[in-house]
Amino acid sequence: MNFLVIGVLVVLQDAAVGSIKVVESYWTLKANELVVDEDMSKYGSKVLVPLVCGEAFEGQNIIWKRENKEELPLHGNRVFVILEERQGGTYTCYNTEGNYLNHTLVLVHWRYKKIIKGTPQKGYIHCSTNNYSGFFQCFWTWDETRAGKVEFVQITRSHTVGNISCRLEPSESSITCQDHAYCPYAEEMDHINLTIYFRSNYIIETYNLQFQISDIVKPDMVHIKKKNNILELQYPESWSTPFSYFPLRFQVKEIRCRRKRNCDCSKRRSKVGLTQKQQWPLKYGVTVCVRAQDGLTNSPWGEWNWYKPQMTAQDTQGYCHRSGCNMKKWMGHAKEL
User: What angle do CA 274, 280, 281 make, to 5 degrees?
Assistant: First the structure.
């Protein structure tokens, strides 16, 4: 049984009982959860919060308890409870025979960002997808100093009636979503609005994110295949088809690294080339780094993949014959590569 209609903001007149004022606004997060939208950060802050056991119990002698233990000096269907600073609680109502009737959890809307890591500039929640299927994931990082949990996820399209479902992963560090009404071949006119409510004890923090699928699409690694003296840059298997409608652009750079573990394409500085062609000339002694981006948007680049050619004795002999190098010296150098 709900105490309030979900999503409706209730504004009370600025009244006071004794020296404590009645809360000015509050809202229902989900069934039996009431969020007080007041700044309760100051030491000793107190407000009166109105609770209703239920319309069906009007006029009855109702008994109230906090945390199902502490009996309160309150009686009746409609009461005021004192909320101090950030100490909310679960308030349960019973009839005179001690039978359970209803309950509500009172939480405080915290206006600061402390439960998960991030900054306003870099963001707190990050979403990504590897194609235009309407499937995407959003993830975040918990702050180690807070015992947090996901209390509620709300996701809609900004204008159209969307059909987006999300599943909270067991780690509670990400959600997996599917926009069932998404059409990859039509222009995406409106945005996805994501709101996640994180809870720590009796505190609720709200995090909002707005995006389109085209903003967050990030291709998987490019497949690199050697064919004669050419490297073929192949689209990821997960990428949307047909490729002519969903073209990719490639970022290519050539680096030198002597050992496999040192071939970190993201850290090596080198001239970067941009191409939509799927072939790249192979140069022995040079490692080729490739990553992809949607060719029609400015969405994120995918992760680097790289190809390091392995020279055979026949390759080395042919290379030295053409370039006039010292065969014995070059063979030793090729082994290091």
Answer: 130
Alpha-carbon distance of 241 to 248, in angstroms, equals 11
Q: What is the pLDDT of residues 103-140, one digit of tens each?
A: 999 999 988 889 999 999 999 999 999 999 999 999 99
Q: Any idea which architecture 126-216 has in CATH?
A: Sandwich (2.60)
The three-state (H, E, C) secondary structure of the chain, written as one string: CCCCCCCCCEECCCCEECCEEECCEEEEEECCEEEECCCCCCCCCEEEEEEECCHHHCCCCCEEEECCCEEEEEECCEEEEEEECCECEEEEEECCCCCEEEEEEEEEECCCCCCECCECCCECCEEEECCCCCEEEEECCECCCCCCEEEEEEEEECCCCCCEEEEECCCCCEEEEEECCCCCCCCCCCCEEEEEEEEECCEEEEEEEEECHHHHECCCCCEEEEECCEEEEECCCCCCCCCCCCCEEEEEEEECCCCHHHCCCCCCCCCEEEECCCEEECCCCCEEEEEEEECCCCCCCCCCEEECCCCCHHHHHHHHHHHCCCHHHHHHHHHHC
- Structural fold of domain 223-313: Immunoglobulin-like (2.60.40)
Question: Of all residues in the chain, what percent carry a pLDDT higher than 90?
Answer: 64
Q: What is the mean pLDDT of the chain?
A: 85
Place of tokens 């900004």: 158
Matching fold, domains 10-109 and 126-216: yes
